[in-house]
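We emphasize that the prediction below concerns an isolated chain of 205 residues; any contacts that depend on oligomerization or on bound cofactors are therefore not represented. The input was used exactly as deposited, without trimming of termini.
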Amino acid sequence: MPHIIPLAQLPFSQACENNKSVIVDNLFHWFANSSHVLEIGSGTGQHCTYFAKHLSHLHWQPSDQASYLPTLHARIAHFPLANLAPPIELDVSTSWPQLPTTLDAIFTANTLHIMSKENVVALFSGCAKHLASKGCLVIYGPFNYSGNYTSDSNRQFDVWLKQQNPVSGIRDIEWITSLAHQQSFELKEDIAMPANNRMLLFTLV
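Result of the prediction step, given as a token string:
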């Protein structure tokens, strides 16, 4: 039997714990008619294990860059759920892997402000290519509106992000919706969430 790393020894994101129950309530409604979901940027794996458990009608496919896969595998080993697939390597800036199923939903949380602008463009392009017609794309994270921060904490967070990596930063919602439109996505809902975040629902027209 392979050695399983104790959960307490795995990387942990408090942000994932703070918002997961609110996110899953929206996903329950938005993904009601979906069956196969790709999560982009699964990170520590806290979201995918929680969402797969609470949304049992969905086949959940975690993914991330190669450096995050050991952590994902280690956490998923603690959650042997029939609807939670082993994580796959996916870097939006390169050719996407052959996905095991047809996707009718894609989810990503707290990624667009970490990525470079070029990678955000690549994300929308890849989602459009791999998502079935009328499929859903859900994005969670902070956004600016009309070039303005929605809170002082987001302003401070943006400064910190750019100190960590100059290509990172909170994105303008107008730019995001323009990118989405270029790839035939339509913004259906934009919901305010805890901690000055937003949850966006796009559908592929």
